[in-house]
Amino acid sequence: MIEALLVMALGAVILGAALGYAAVRFRVEGDPLVEKIDAILPQTQCGQCGFPGCKPYAQAIAKGEAEINQCPPGGDEGIHKLADLLGREYKPLSAEHGIEKPKSVAVIDEAACIGCTLCIQACPVDAIVGAAKQMHTVIATQCTGCELCIAPCPVDCIRMEGIAETVDSWKWKYPVVALRRVA
Amino acid sequence: MNNSPYFLKPASVRFVMLRVLLALTPAIAIYVWFFGAAILVQISLASVTALLAEAGMLKLRGKPVMMFLGDGSALVTAWLIALTFPPIAPWWLTVVGVLMAIVIAKHLYGGLGQNPFNPAMVAFAMMIVAYPSLMSQWPAVGFTDFLPQWNAIFGARQLDAITMATPLDALRTALHTADARATVAGVLGSSASFGNIGGKGWEWVAAGYFLGGIYLLQQRIITWHMPAAFLATLLVISGGFALYDPTRFVGPSFHLFTGGAMLGAFFIVTDPVSGCTTPRGKLIFAAGIGLLTWVIRSFGAYPDGIAFAVLLMNIAAPLIDINTQPPVFGHKRRGGDPQ
Amino acid sequence: MIAQLFRFKGGIKPNSHKDESTTQPIKLAPLPPRLVVPLRQSARAMARCIVEPGQDVLKGQVIAVAEGPLCTAVHAPTSGTVRAIEPQPIPHPSGLPAPSVVIEPDGEERWVERFPFDIATATPQQARDYLRDCGIVGLGGAGFPSHVKLGPGEKGIQTLILNGAECEPWITCDDRLMRERAAQILAGAAMMRHITGARRILVGIEDNKPQAIEAMRQAARELGEKEIGVVAVPTRYPAGGEKQLIRVLTGIEIPYGKLGTHFGVQCFNVGSAHAVYRAIAHGEPLVSRIVTLSGNFERPGNFEVAIGTPIRDLLPLAVPRADTNRYIMGGPMMGVGLQSLDVPVIKATNCVLAGSPTLFPAPPPEMPCIRCGECAKACPAELQPFELYWYSRAKIFGKAQEYSLFDCIECGCCSYVCPSRIPLVDYFRFAKAEIWAREKEKAAADTARERYEFRLAREEREKQEKAAKLAAKTAAGREKAAAALAEAQKPARTPEEEAKHALIAAALERAKAQKEQAHPENVSDLTPEQQAEITAIEARRAEIREQAKPHLRQDD
Amino acid sequence: MTSYLFIILGAVLVNNVVFIRILGLCPFMGVSKKLETALGMGAATTFVLTMACGASFVIDRWLLIPNQLEYLRTLSFIVTIAAIVQLTELVIQKTSPVLHQVLGIYLPLITTNCAVLGIPLLNVSLRHNFLESLLFGFGSAMGFTLALILFAGIRERMEAADVPVHFRGTAIAMITAGLMSLAFMGFAGLDKYK
Q1: Residue-number span of the structural domain to which B245 is assigned
Q2: What's the total number of domains in chain D?
Q3: What is the interface pTM, i.e. ipTM, of the complex?
């Protein structure tokens, strides 16, 4: 009995020492995973996930504090990519965080704008230009469509507009599967 | 409104499958000549089962039944199963085998074109693992009376009179389990089931498959890669070992003209769905089947190794394909430098 | 002169249907009542319009100038009046409209002043700029700007290839052009050779066009040049693909993402060479081209058509048969199905093909892929189309890219041979479009991330500055108090403090202004009654605020 | 020499740890979605299993048997394996963070991978010597890796297959594993050949 205890104790001491040494020797700094997650997120910085931006959400996912299905702009595909990267199971987009919408940009009704700068402060990517008491306008190419400027506007002069399809932005569609026609 | 190209070459899956069935007919005729009409019963049984199973699965999966049923792929699977199973196997063995092939190996993976394993070989492997003795009762050559065979399939099994082991099985059993002094020459000389070059009768059936294979090659339905690599590997390796120790290893002619070698070479190995598709991959794939067939025939526990060899290489096929991708136009020479 | 030809793998041999439209010489198409000239003539770029509605233009007058490296100028195809500058349908698979100039011809065909370009004294750069301003783009079908292709690249160009292969069935515009204007084509080629400094010219023509080959050889003999070779190449679609023709004539394979110039070889359509000749020798910009009308027509043939002519006005020239149910711009293998007959002829329009249910039957239903490998045998880019299909269909685009999706030239050979009748090219177009869209999205996301991070950094900096300012202020305040204690009376503020105070005052002002603006003030243009009502409400609000004051510390 | 070869061959093919012994199914199903991760998992398991076989042999032969403590075998083997796994995890985390993240839960699960405990115990019951133990462990791990890679190859392709909805994911993966197992039964008898 004593031998058994001794043997186990000896084993525990040796293994513990080895592990302790390894923990010091192979310490990891930083977290490269956050970057990878952040690269998948759509960078709308809309905060619909419940975090104040894409990066914080990425950090939360990396730490395991957030689910991967909280990003409506990233949509189904973003969730699939996150699931792939992290080896987690796919989950459908969580409804409480919003729904996937077609991409759109904010447009300021320039006649109604009073130049309050509130939307400029709200815009996470500085895509609204203007100054106090001057008319504001959205730089459409930089707008991520996060809708954060809509709520602060005191005169409700900002609306979201879908992006119209042009010859340049048109995409080939998924081929119509003839099977369905026959069936 | 469809997009370019607007006109297409006349060709269809059904056309391909019907050619394959046509190519099988000479061998079937020879089969009937030597071993009786039981095989025709089995083929009909398998065909009906396959078509019913296919229709049922298509219906369950919500696909247009008539369109897919007409492609003929289920018939090809059914015929291959019938031709690899013993012709006097009980009817339910064939039926269960076909169901396994169509339902599990084919439709659970998404149907035609998506199955990673050869359905006919899945059926064969399952049945030989589950019912090894039933799968080893083959009709004696020349015993072509229809009634006993019919009874063997559907009724009372009075088998002793009409069955014998296949040549491969006989040789393997003799070499493995009999006394240590058994030699290839001794075994071959001792039994009536061995013919001049392969198994008696079987060598002619094999010739029939060969004929069909040539037809498929001529019709450009299969390419030379797979049959050539498979047969060459089997030839070289069995020839080499037969030279090394002729008492323990039987020669290449026996390997090539016995069992499923010829059927396999032209009709099973060449299945494009579950096999490799790159030119180099096809060679590796078929050579692998040849090697494994010989290994399992020579050292393994099952009489014919083709089914297992095919399944094993089916498993490896995706990896072989990934690693044998041919270079794309312009990417062959390093950096594509001009001369 | 060329002993050895090379071959490209794959390819198909469909029935070529060339004879139907080659019997007649090229005829001039009449001017339509209305020309629609899209501003988007070259492959990827849109020119900037410089005319206005109502303005009179002359034939050959610039109506839009080139902007950016891949753009070419656009000219008025005839004299007349600009009626509108508006989105009009253009020949594009999307069927979407794009900005176009609508011109009503006056029927007089008055040219602008034309000056031949003196190529002998001009630098290559000047010559390229001139061609750009003449609106010269590739006339083979893709419409890539010629001046870009004439650029020197890294190593210069040794071999200039003229593409007269014209491998698509039915199309014969290059064939007729070579038969009738061989000398002009070779003259244009010689000019391009001069610009690029190339050594030799090779003309590749499929061997099913013996008359064209003979005409070109005759012209070359007359030119008396040894360094021009007219080569008959085997007839096999897509021998006229640029990369395939370069491969056949020189053995060089140009991978995806590389241009001919990287390898010292460049390839031009014979029509482009002809256009270059017209531009340089006669000062004529590209305002018309040869278009084949073939397929389901009573009188198929080739016509010289003004750019901008609506297809509808073209059809009576060849008389479509009664059962014609569709029109295709380009050939049957790579052409664009026309969704409207109002689309105009553009510079890339080589053919208008009429189709009938018997000529181009509706595609049979798609069956599953059986991985038979026919497509891989037919693929001239030596791809594995069934693997591309497998992953494109399931939208696993990363895998499709691993199988070199972008090396696909969309020639249609795989769809043509597929026994399962799968529209393979459609799947590849879809996958490519998705990947491109995604890359665009990714780039946008990266910009957004950068801007977001910059904003965060700026806010952080501002916070720190504010804190520093605050610290400075309190420190200054304390000092001031101490100073006030020590020395009873002193001049109150230093100039720095003055400035600081001014800043604070301004900030307060701003805050106040903001606060005011925070109230809804969309109150301009109101009627007096409304104004009065608002004032009354405001007064009531003030009253309530006054009453609430004991309870509330602050009303905002 | 041939006997060693037969040990490896038998462990890789004939008695493949996954397909024939049906051990280690959890990581087999879990980490076979992608080829790269399968390779990573295979490498990690190979390392751990070989080490575990060596270490457990040493403990068994020189610690447990001399002291008549065979009843502590399972316990001490588990502890040893756990320590080796911990060590591996630390090393991987340092050298390949992505692999670490991808292996995720499965890396600690090597601890409870029944193959990793089963093979050392089999070593004892098969009375392998030290070299044989190492080879058997290595061979089994190679068999595990082979199974994982082959399975990953098929799964990558199957990902795009039109599998009926109810069978997507784990269900069809299980069926595939079963059919692969069936194929590996073809090797039966190879190791008994005289």
Answers
A1: 176-322
A2: 1
A3: 0.87
